[in-house]
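Section 5.1 Outputs to date
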Amino acid sequence: MGSGMIFDISRYAIHDGPGIRTTVFFKGCPLSCWWCHNPESISSRPHVTLRPRQCIRCGQCIAICPNHAIAFSGAATTTDPALCELCLECAQVCCADAREVVGRSVTVEEVMAEIKKDIAFYDESGGGVTFSGGEPLMQPAFLQELLDACGRLDIHRTVDTSGYAAREALLRVAEKTDLFLYDLKHMDPETHRKYTGVSNQVILENLMALSAAGASVRVRLPLIPGVNDDRRNVESTGAFLAKLDRVGWIEILPYHDVVGSKYQRFGWGYRLGQLPPPDPLHLRDIAAILSSFRLRVSIGGTDHERAYSQAQTSQP
């Protein structure tokens, strides 16, 4: 059986599809969204992250680096990316766990061993396995083997995707997938390119192809203030989805800024800066617009009217 590159396996997940789930995070993504909550997933190769507060400046990483890419610079420890060849030895000798390798090659058997641990929870809750990322469709052969293995055990299979993938690979995967969680980030191709690095043409065409093939799809709209929360984009999204026979559910995922600390830990710049989350009243208005297109709408997995009531009662 084959192998692939992942960066995490999360058990007891409840926001990645129905029921209690195990989420397998694939490494590698063709998009580079400004608000990405898993920036460590974008590169398809393993890399080393540094937690500066845990560094005790013992110098072991400097001593072992074969290319002299690591150095002390004042109070900080720096790594020259032009010299680093990702041998990962610095993380292996770090006694303070300040350096961490993100990404590892695993076999289908190794992933399935983790998945099988929670079969009882899937059966009880109507859950299963979600393959996320990154973009799982960047490793289609590995993904298909995992889907086949889960199918033989009658485990519910969800694929969380940006939709930016080869059509042939997507439709092959669809034959083995019980549910797609499909991101729609913006309807305007140039705005989509600005904030994600790619056009949305392939994404929209692939969503139409999945609908025509009879796949079960739940669309997700990551709602980013000032990026895609304007009335024009919301109405365009609703009108597009209303034309698709198999896509009747859209889940609004309100932006939150907790990911900023992750970018700091990795030493990467965060392009959105200090962006506040969407206002609850604005969320309700957006949900109402989408509902007018006869779409089932949820906010973070909750019926939008119920979510609005909860938000109102929690305000001072």
